[in-house]
Amino acid sequence: MTKSMSAALRLREKLPFPLQRLADLAYNYWWSWTSDRIALFQTIDPQEWERCGHNPVAILESATYERLTQLAEDPFYLKQISALGREFDEYMMQSNTWVSRVAPQVSAAHPIAYFCAEFGIHESLPVYSGGLGILAGDHLKSASDLGVPMVGIGLLYRQGYFRQRLNRSGWQEDYYVDNPFHRMPLELIKNEQGEALTIELEIRQRQVKVQIWQVQVGRVTLYLLDSDRHDNDPIDRWLTGHLYGGNQETRIAQEVVLGIGGVRALKALNIQPSVYHLNEGHAAFCTLEIARQKIEQTGKSFYDIEADVRKQCVFTTHTPVPAGHDVFSPDLIDSFFAHYWAQLRLSRQQFLALGARRLGDPWEPFGMTVLALRMCRTSNGVSELHGRVSRQMWTVLYPNRSEDNVPIGYITNGVHAPTWTAPLMADLYNQYLGADWKTRAVDPQMWEKVEDIPNAELWWRHQILKERLVAHTRHKVKIAREGRGEEYERIQAINTLLDPKALTIGFARRFSPYKRGHLLLRDLDRALRIFGNSDRPVQIVFSGKAHPADEEGKRIIQRLMEWCRHPAIVNRVAFIEDYDIYTATKLVQGVDVWLNNPRRPLEASGTSGQKVCFNGGINCSVLDGWWCEGYQADANGKGINGWAIGEDAHTSDQELQDRIDSESLYQLLEEEIVPLYYNQDEKGIPHGWVQMMKASIKTNAPLFNTDRMIADYVSQVYVPEISVAVPPILAKVSV
């Protein structure tokens, strides 16, 4: 009996017998990517479902017995549970998986250990901040679907990432909320004595106990480390308090917990990984702990076992932005590792050299990406362009190699199709692509069948999803305006905010200056002409957070909030506060156009635009990240499956690039996007637009999904000695 089952069993005892399978489903996030996910738990109490943040355990525990017994005599609901329970059992017990067929040597006895500082599994598990976490969550889900033996290693944050509210001046205010761990779909792992299983770490000359929680993600288990224990120093209890919060000392302490603590947790759980996958540099200290344990076991020197450590470790880097790579001063390394390098049989200078870009400089900081590049057998970026940029960034570590031969390859990111495809669209795919479309996401021939979908049918479903986005936006904006104490008239005006029939653009991401959330406002008069046009209305929904320390990012949000109040476009522009997975889902499923305009080449990959494609949305993006590979144009340079902003060129002159890109964006809207959308027949169907929707789906869906991505990792990184035949592999990792 697994630990997760014991939690489910306790919950089962509280439920009427016919509903007890709900407890099994609640403790495994597999339910969150099924076709029945909307009604399964929401039906119990829609208002409470909203209040509890779509937490299945909380809704079952808070429901009255009277309500549960009502559901227990509803034959339709019971049939739904029974069918879903059978589907769940078949999924969990399936032995004939993709990996068992193509790579049977990947053994459950020695799984891949996937380390990441954040995991975006579902909004009810708020241990994520953005793209890195969402990618990590999708990685685990596809590993589960394909049967790849894998465990996730992360941190369980008491208060997660900061919550966002905007005051009456539009300025972002940050606040935090405790996560109710004991009412969430996770369980504390205990030893045979019934006590929390713990590992110990020395941090800042103190012994810190770290406990381990587990979350079931289909067939994959995610282990989350937590220092919030009564027997720890009050300061150490907050080591896992906030995601990306605190100062440099907090950051390095968290990375010690993730890397060194993660390896020790695996040992305490009797898990012996075949591969350690470091998803970003935050976990790079794990390579040192693997080395320390080998030295302890064998008595060999660090340099004798270094090659063995490297054979087991692989690394994915996710950002071309220098600030995204953690570095720590030698003094800070001293305070955290003075006790540790002796255990590696290294001197201080030898230890610091592992993380130094340039050897011999006593002031050279210790870089986590540098450590990962040195200690891993393969390293890859997350798009073709990002791989190229990463090789340029890190040539200093390989002085005897040309830039093209720097050993950093690429595997382009994807998204988990069942999670991000709206059930309404999934139902359409069931009809025209086949009921097994989710398991054939990498098959381009299957996606060609999108052409068989009647234009009216695709458009009708898309319009319903857009209406749902409008309703969600109005609801969230109303709550925000009420919270700010705005005037009664402003609150009532919510009823006319956005038009479900109007061309709708979505822009949602972290509000870092390089992502240029305000590029549309560069020429305010021109923007007002586009968004204030009463004959061919255009509207946009913004969402996203600026890092608490990013003053410029906060000013961008404030400027957008001012724009939301402009009388000419007051009903055409909306900002949804406190961006999370749920809002992201509504946006990527409901927009007509997904806008992405970072300064190239600073977008490593991006995945939001990929999610849009599965729902018939169309991308309008700078040729950066994944869009360099996804965008297709005809012989005249006209976009077939979306639009490209600006020129496919790099320049260090930011003002020039902003001017070129904003002019290009305005021109695209005025001359191509708006006319194409409003060229509608007597029934309101824009056939040219729908054809581009179909092109967006069929060209991007088979490539930019995590099934393809996982297949690439298996064949090129995890077990490169095998030859895996899958439909068009998008990327090759250079080793």
UniProtKB/TrEMBL annotation:
Residues 15-125 form the DUF3417 domain. SUPFAM superfamilies: UDP-Glycosyltransferase/glycogen phosphorylase. It holds the Pfam family Phosphorylase. One of its GO terms (biological process) is carbohydrate metabolic process. Keywords: Allosteric enzyme, Pyridoxal phosphate. It catalyses: [(1->4)-alpha-D-glucosyl](n) + phosphate = [(1->4)-alpha-D-glucosyl](n-1) + alpha-D-glucose 1-phosphate. Gene3D superfamilies: Glycogen Phosphorylase B (3.40.50.2000). The modification N6-(pyridoxal phosphate)lysine is found at residue 611. One of its GO terms (molecular function) is pyridoxal phosphate binding. It comes from the Bacteria. Signal peptide: none annotated. Belongs to the glycogen phosphorylase family. This is Alpha-glucan phosphorylase. The lineage of its organism: Bacteria, Bacillati, Cyanobacteriota, Cyanophyceae, Nostocales.
